[in-house]
């Protein structure tokens, strides 16, 4: 039996689930020990390798997360908000590092993670890529340098299957801009403009979302001044960047004290 940390992937059949399975398998840094899908899913009881279109790998997809978690050191979870909260409670029980990529979580969802983080390491980020996490730091710096006459808009584009808006990344960038400007995003956010909206509120941070085709994820932070504009941009062309970041977080979490962390902690930014 290898000493490599054992990892469970939840939402195994999803876009990110399948990418994570591939990246963990190819990494040589961790063992894939479990795969979870919801009750009634076609993959339940079947071999994960075969479901992914390859050779059998002996990992049987289950709808019993606690059983899957019992032989693991970490769970990587890119699913949906209610499912993530339920997984957090079980990961805390099993003392696993819980890497959360799920977006669209409300304050009520997030509040339920705090008690879990008393028992286990939780790493949560709306975007696990190095580029976007670096972009949050740049955004904060630019927002700090420019005065409130510069309007800040976050524009994001994603594939046509995405269910939440603004994206988790857009919110991270908005938070970074608000922090740089020394304001609370909750009091200064403007999104969903349609119809006679009135003029833009001074100092607001705006959000716009585009949905179409197979766009992996694109984010612009636009600083619009009088006579000039500054645009910070990240373009994701491959979901592997998110999966690599998530695996890094799962390995990083192995020797950390219980608590809530993000990718800035993992990447040391
Ligand atoms: N932080 C980051 O870097 C990134 C975050 N994301 C986020 O990750 C999440 C997933 O994205 P994506 O992979 O594209 O979405 P998909 O819909 O392709 O995958 C989600 C998977 O989770 C499964 N799932 C949902 N509820 C449960 C449950 N209760 N138990 C087990 N499995 C469950 C779904 O099953 P079913 O189909 O049966 O519902 C599906 O297989 C989204 O919130 C997205 O925004 C995505 C990319 C990067
Ligand atoms: O749903 C997606 O696909 C993505 N979701 C994340 C988000 O909401 O920002 C990260 C990435 O942009 C892809």
From TrEMBL:
<keyword id="KW-0560">Oxidoreductase</keyword>
<feature type="binding site">
    <location>
        <position position="38"/>
    </location>
    <ligand>
        <name>NADP(+)</name>
    </ligand>
</feature>
<dbReference type="GO" id="GO:0050661">
    <property type="term" value="F:NADP binding"/>
</dbReference>
<keyword id="KW-0457">Lysine biosynthesis</keyword>
<feature type="active site" description="Proton donor">
    <location>
        <position position="162"/>
    </location>
</feature>
<dbReference type="GO" id="GO:0051287">
    <property type="term" value="F:NAD binding"/>
</dbReference>
<keyword id="KW-0963">Cytoplasm</keyword>
<comment type="similarity">
    <text>Belongs to the DapB family.</text>
</comment>
<dbReference type="InterPro" id="IPR023940">
    <property type="entry name" value="DHDPR_bac"/>
</dbReference>
<comment type="subunit">
    <text>Homotetramer.</text>
</comment>
<feature type="binding site">
    <location>
        <begin position="168"/>
        <end position="169"/>
    </location>
    <ligand>
        <name>(S)-2,3,4,5-tetrahydrodipicolinate</name>
    </ligand>
</feature>
<keyword id="KW-0521">NADP</keyword>
<comment type="function">
    <text>Catalyzes the conversion of 4-hydroxy-tetrahydrodipicolinate (HTPA) to tetrahydrodipicolinate.</text>
</comment>
<feature type="binding site">
    <location>
        <position position="159"/>
    </location>
    <ligand>
        <name>(S)-2,3,4,5-tetrahydrodipicolinate</name>
    </ligand>
</feature>
<feature type="domain" description="Dihydrodipicolinate reductase C-terminal">
    <location>
        <begin position="131"/>
        <end position="267"/>
    </location>
</feature>
<feature type="binding site">
    <location>
        <begin position="101"/>
        <end position="103"/>
    </location>
    <ligand>
        <name>NAD(+)</name>
    </ligand>
</feature>
<dbReference type="GO" id="GO:0016726">
    <property type="term" value="F:oxidoreductase activity, acting on CH or CH2 groups, NAD or NADP as acceptor"/>
</dbReference>
<dbReference type="InterPro" id="IPR000846">
    <property type="entry name" value="DapB_N"/>
</dbReference>
<keyword id="KW-0220">Diaminopimelate biosynthesis</keyword>
<feature type="binding site">
    <location>
        <position position="37"/>
    </location>
    <ligand>
        <name>NAD(+)</name>
    </ligand>
</feature>
<dbReference type="InterPro" id="IPR022663">
    <property type="entry name" value="DapB_C"/>
</dbReference>
<dbReference type="GO" id="GO:0019877">
    <property type="term" value="P:diaminopimelate biosynthetic process"/>
</dbReference>
<comment type="pathway">
    <text>Amino-acid biosynthesis; L-lysine biosynthesis via DAP pathway; (S)-tetrahydrodipicolinate from L-aspartate: step 4/4.</text>
</comment>
<dbReference type="GO" id="GO:0008839">
    <property type="term" value="F:4-hydroxy-tetrahydrodipicolinate reductase"/>
</dbReference>
<feature type="active site" description="Proton donor/acceptor">
    <location>
        <position position="158"/>
    </location>
</feature>
<dbReference type="Pfam" id="PF01113">
    <property type="entry name" value="DapB_N"/>
</dbReference>
<dbReference type="InterPro" id="IPR036291">
    <property type="entry name" value="NAD(P)-bd_dom_sf"/>
</dbReference>
<feature type="binding site">
    <location>
        <begin position="11"/>
        <end position="16"/>
    </location>
    <ligand>
        <name>NAD(+)</name>
    </ligand>
</feature>
<dbReference type="GO" id="GO:0009089">
    <property type="term" value="P:lysine biosynthetic process via diaminopimelate"/>
</dbReference>
<dbReference type="Pfam" id="PF05173">
    <property type="entry name" value="DapB_C"/>
</dbReference>
<keyword id="KW-0028">Amino-acid biosynthesis</keyword>
<dbReference type="InterPro" id="IPR022664">
    <property type="entry name" value="DapB_N_CS"/>
</dbReference>
<feature type="domain" description="Dihydrodipicolinate reductase N-terminal">
    <location>
        <begin position="7"/>
        <end position="128"/>
    </location>
</feature>
<protein>
    <recommendedName>
        <fullName>4-hydroxy-tetrahydrodipicolinate reductase</fullName>
        <ecNumber>1.17.1.8</ecNumber>
    </recommendedName>
</protein>
<feature type="binding site">
    <location>
        <begin position="125"/>
        <end position="128"/>
    </location>
    <ligand>
        <name>NAD(+)</name>
    </ligand>
</feature>
<dbReference type="GO" id="GO:0005829">
    <property type="term" value="C:cytosol"/>
</dbReference>
<keyword id="KW-0520">NAD</keyword>
């Amino acid at each position: 039996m290898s000493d490599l940390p054992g990892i469970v992937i939840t939402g195994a059949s999803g876009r990110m689930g399948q990418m994570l399975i591939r990246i963990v398998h190819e990494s040589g840094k961790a063992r894939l020990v479990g795969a979870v899908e919801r009750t009634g899913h076609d993959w339940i009881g079947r071999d994960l390798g075969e479901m992914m279109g390859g050779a059998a790998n002996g990992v049987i997809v289950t709808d019993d997360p606690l059983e899957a978690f019992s032989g693991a050191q970490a769970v990587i979870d890119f699913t949906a908000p209610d499912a993530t909260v339920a997984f957090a409670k079980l990961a805390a029980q099993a003392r696993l590092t819980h890497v959360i990529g799920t977006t669209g979580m409300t304050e009520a969802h997030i509040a339920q993670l705090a008690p879990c983080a008393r028992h286990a390491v939780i790493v949560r980020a709306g975007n696990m890529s190095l580029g976007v996490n670096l972009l949050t730091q740049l955004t904060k710096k630019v927002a700090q340098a420019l005065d409130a006459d510069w309007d800040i808009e976050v524009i994001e584009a994603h594939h046509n299957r995405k269910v939440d808006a603004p994206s988790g990344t857009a919110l991270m960038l908005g938070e970074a801009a608000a922090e740089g400007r020394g304001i609370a995003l909750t009091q200064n956010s403007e999104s969903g403009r349609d119809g006679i909206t009135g003029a833009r509120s001074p100092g607001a941070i705006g959000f716009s979302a585009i949905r179409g085709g197979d766009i992996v994820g694109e984010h612009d932070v636009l600083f619009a001044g009088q006579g000039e504009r500054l645009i910070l941009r990240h373009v994701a062309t491959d979901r592997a960047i998110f999966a690599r970041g998530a695996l890094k977080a799962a390995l990083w979490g192995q020797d950390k004290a219980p608590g809530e962390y993000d990718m800035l902690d993992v990447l040391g930014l």
